Known about the structure:
By secondary structure, this protein is mainly α. It has helices at 14-46, 50-67, 76-85, 91-110, 118-137, 141-160, 163-170, 179-192. The protein is built from 8 helices and no strands. It is globular and about 55 Å long.
Amino acid sequence: MSGFPSFDTVEIQRIDYVLMILYMICGCVLAYFYETTHAITEKIADKIPGIIKETLAGLLLGLTGMAVPAVMFSGEEQMEVLMRDYAGYFSIVLIAIAFLKVLLTNVCIQFGLKGGHFFPVIFAGVCMGYGVAMLCFGKDGSHVVFAAAIVTATLLGGIMKKPLAVTMLLFLCFPVKMFLWIFIAAAVGSKCSKK
């Protein structure tokens, strides 16, 4: 796991705590989108023969990847690039990439392509967090890291329904200093997705 990119420790400001509610709402929206697209792609995949659905998923992934390379692969390499070059993106584009990554992840998994959802979903949460923080603060690096942590924790909490497991998983990439806030966001996500 040493190859997974990790964020530097940042100074959390008072305004970040206020915006934590917005970040958790964004994470809940993305978790709801994940659950919805998961159910829809599962229903569609059940009606298509194996080889055809795998071929369709491969074509969709390939064509989308040519247009938006950030959605390719599990998200580890792309997250490292995003951490370094996020200022070169429009905030709305990062938010759109988050939704697209969640959709493609569900298509690939339900249509029989190999892989899991943890790292792609972490990447989607980071994209959404960066995008929302950039809408609020511009390209200030300290705010985007906190936003990415909260959105990602809420998103994973909504999907996994296990806040402590989410918190431990996110120690792979976020500073341990954010433990309490990540845990709270994951707990809120696990409750929001049930409603």
